[in-house]
Amino acid sequence: MSDAKLTPMMQQYFEVRRGLSRDTLLLFRLGDFFEMFFEDAVTASKLLGLTLTKRQDHPMAGIPAQALDTYVTKLLAAGKKVAVCDQAEPAKAGKLVRRQLTRILSPGTTLAANQLDAVRNHYLAALAVDKHGLHAAWLDLSTGEFKVATDERVANLLPVLTALDPAEILITEGERERWAAAPHEQTELHALHAFCNNRLASELPGYHFDATTGAKTVMDTLGVLNLEGFGLAHTHAALGAAGALVYYATENLCAKPENLRGLQEYRSTRTLLLDPATLRNLEIFNSVRGGRDGSLLNAINRTATPAGARLLERWLAAPVLDLAETNRRQQIVGELRAEPMRLAELHELLGQVRDIPRILGRLQNRLRNPRELGGVRDTLAQVPPLRAALGAFADAQQLPAIATQLQELPALRDLLGRALATELPNDLTDGNYIAAGYDPELDRLKSLTTDNKTWLSDLERAEQERTGIRSLKVRFTNNFGYYIEVTKANLHLVPADYIRRQTTVGGERYVTEALKQKEKEIFHAEENALARELELFNQLVTAILDESIALAHTADALAELDVLVGWALLAREWDYCQPALDEGSVLEIVDGRHPVVEQMLRANDIAPARGSSAGFVPNDTLLAADDAQIALITGPNMAGKSTYIRQVALITLMAQIGCWVPAKSCRVGLVDRIFSRVGASDDLARGNSTFMVEMNETANILNNATPRSLIILDEIGRGTSTYDGLSIAWAVVEHLHRDPERGPRTLFATHYQELTQLEKHLPRLRNLSVAVKEWNDEIVFVRRVVPGAADRSYGIQVARLAGLPLTVIDRAKTILAKLESDDTTVSLPAPQARPKKKITVSEADDSQLKLL
Q: Mind spelling out the 3-state secondary structure of 800-821?
């Protein structure tokens, strides 16, 4: 369509549309609706279930302006970007309304509360790869968290990026195709490709990733002359990625982001690394069933605030390797746990704290409503009692430091308390968010409105008496204003001074000169009152933003206190102990328990399965890099081998983030990485079978583990033939033991009984087994891990518990006996037919099988 044939409004539309990428849907304000045209309308109609209409024979679809957030949320969830072009002035008859692009919303840059998960961080990340390695930056625009990282090895940064789980990723144009086409041996580039394929990846021209330009962009945005105050050189290789983030955020906000407080550097050498496979296998953030239920994060989360929940997520994503910091957290948990009444009081007070980081983020980036200010008011009201509660803990050494970080800001607290109404609307146009008595001028304007509406009530009664029409009503609509309504049955009683304005189904609508004049007075008073309220509102926003730094520091302290209070509650409820951390290589756990399974057993009130012992059975662990380095664990399926090795890894991780742990006692020599290879999964999209995935993950472990690492391996080699698998498993164990003095602490669960012979040849290997009891050809699982190797696998007994037909069980016994006799020269006799007997398994058995 040529510009000559376009209406002025559509010319305006195309001027905005030309500046947007094709993958962005444009919502164009027309009166009470946001309209979409052409391909945007077709796409949106499918995603939102809208009816397509036409404008000049071209597709068109619209949504009500008041429902914008609801529809935008659905589009973002579908991975779309949305540009909002709003009216920049009131509509006037005969004049084209000026419109402007107010915001571009993408999954990584949205700020609205209803478009974010309150308890999860929301990251936008940028990645660049060159001959020097991977350069990354990530930004949570809703809170202002901003970090950069660079590493010559992709494998050192991919774990934390996976844990952060960014909602959107920025990469250079063509980068994804280059990673996919990399030679097979460049596995790290293929890993990056897979990482980006699972998320929305937006491509930018390469010049946006230039490090020199990025450094200048970041400094301009932060308002600094250099980055030395943040411990960064202006030549840092990841500043190109950081600059791309700031550019993209600025374009989407249609303004410079105002809530970026600083820039931090992430270094993989300062944190415990968990590769993507380990995050998945250990169910750190999500369970294998999907969602947070059944994950470690969910099991140790007792936070009362969204900011606290997000901080816990960040601590789990990048556990610090700082003994002093970890011990500080553990000591605070101990101080809180020691006084249960005060602990409960703190938890209750924290429940009244609002999400200050995100409130500040929205206020600073021009998303403002009265309830945001109410959140600041309500939070500041909790600071004095929180400080008092912290000060009441006897003999506390660490808690006073947190109390001093909570700034009361009495002037701001008093201002907001006096200025804001008790009940606050979510929309500025609703008015009535400034408290009565705060501003005399506003009170005067509102009194005019109140007086006028009293006049309208009096007018209705007076006109009813004057005309004798008892059903006469004085009404109001947005489109028509104030009017007098008379039903058809009473039209003969209408006075001569009534001016007819509209006919309706039930009667007529009239006005009088007095009513028209009073309407002008009411509208004028309401308009002035709303304008005055908005003026006062902006003054309050300015007062809050003037204290934004103090508020942000207070919010950080509240989030930390929230996590630690939650851990203290957890420690009391589940009888957790304070672990001892040191620089040594010993990992010793006495009566350790699986933190997730234990809670699920109680929550589901699961009865023990047939062949099981009641309750969760604790177990001991002792590993040392230079002594008992490898524990080889044998025993039947369902006995609890997988649960046991996982619980050791989870207890270690909990100890290193500062949490108390489910054990009688625990000592952890700092671990630099946790690796796990458990379960069975495939990657058919990339042509990888279950066994290939297993070997890829095992190769990653063997190539990256250090003597300070913790490794858990479950059933290595089971995806191929018996002899191939046994050979691989044997060689893996020897490789882990190859250093003559020390090696990574390893728990190796296996069904290959042949591997137990290695204890005779490898001095740092110890055989363990999960004990069972036999009775009448059945087994009872006692869930105890004991020294020594299992004598056999009990597979047939487990098959019986699972409900296999007795004909199959009996035949398996016959075959097993023949195979164990090693007499392959005699053929096996044919099975004899026997009557069928139904075997059932209780629901409790099935639940226990799923858990263990």
A: HHHCCCHHHHHHHHHHHHHHHC
